[in-house]
Amino acid sequence: MYFVDASHFVLASFLGWVWCFVRLYVRAASGRQRYNVLGALNAVTHELVTEINTTYITATSVCALLHKIASRGASVPVTLVMDNARYQRCALVTDTAKALGVELLFLPSYSPNLNLIERLWKFVKKDVLNSRHHQNFQTFQEAIDGCLTDLPTKHREKLATLLAHNFQTWDNVSILNA
């Protein structure tokens, strides 16, 4: 089972804390260059499969990710848990998934808390972007790629607790009439 979602990293300044008695000038990047990472996170092994570009995430990007996952030769059926983005629900993606033998499971609208990969994107943004200034787009890309490369080694212990399968559930809930 893979949890799939895209993160659109924007070259900009992300401030953590700024409080001072005198005026402080904070360096900021110019422009709005984006580094798009479409990722599929294995729910058990925490392995990350990515499709990366600097333009837009489209249905063809999702199909390329599907081919990467299918080429891994899994001996068990593969299920992708996805949100309701348009480019994930289109006929091209569903037809490609069917041809590759991959099951698509769509989450309810507006429920990012059910998608495990959202926790990973939050971790990457905190580790790479918060309170940091990148001189140019190349160092920005290298920082994100470095963090993603270090996930199974350097960040393994942090991710073990962050990517646990503890989702909030409600048992024996009574609904009050309004």
Automatic annotation (TrEMBL):
Pfam families: DDE_3 (PF13358). Residues 2-140 form the Tc1-like transposase DDE domain. GO terms for molecular function: nucleic acid binding. The keyword Membrane applies. Keywords: Membrane, Transmembrane, Transmembrane helix. It comes from the Bacteria. SUPFAM superfamilies: Ribonuclease H-like (SSF53098). InterPro entries: RNaseH-like_sf, RNaseH_sf, Tc1-like_DDE_dom, Transpos_IS630-like. The chain crosses the membrane at residues 6-26. NCBIfam families: transpos_IS630. This is Tc1-like transposase DDE domain-containing protein. It comes from Gemmata massiliana.
